[in-house]
Amino acid sequence: MFDRETRCYSGEIRAEQQDAQPSRIIGYGSVFNSRSEPLWGFREIIKPNAFDGVLNDDVRALFNHDANFILGRTVAGTLALSVDERGLQYDICAPDTQTIRDLVLEPMRRGDIDQSSFGFRVAHDGEHWYEDDEGMVIREIHRFSRLFDVSPVTYPAYQDTDSAVRSLKAWQQAKETGVLQHAINQRMARERLLTLLNV
Question: Is the pLDDT assigned to residue 176 strictly greater than 80?
């Protein structure tokens, strides 16, 4: 899928089972206002409200982002998504199969699988690039256009990141050629004019 990205977070997942109820997998696919580990020359921050327009998407819960291991789906009622002050939380009603018990649930209970991830697409105007005071390039994501899946994962893989790298390179090129400063100046002039007009 074009422009599909994934991100991974550690220590955000657990398996639960109560009495004769189906096993549940509960985790955070994303946390807000926290800098990611360095990614290809930049760090990323996901802002609150970034998921507002995508929570009703047809989202899958997959093991390791593998469509062969589907754990739940929002339209089937086996995956519930919610957002709280911490981030994007998911609650999966896991299939009662030997494969899922052996590959996912038991390793989670043992602590072998303790990371969580999500697949997404950033909205066209849903990101803001800048350099912080230490010279680190920061990508703030404030709006997603699509949420594909949430996944408990074995390894924190950062797959399918070509779009983030392309976006970073476009920002760097705009900064180097002065296009970025020109756009900033135009926006500031527009804002001054609106302030003068009391709009």
Answer: no
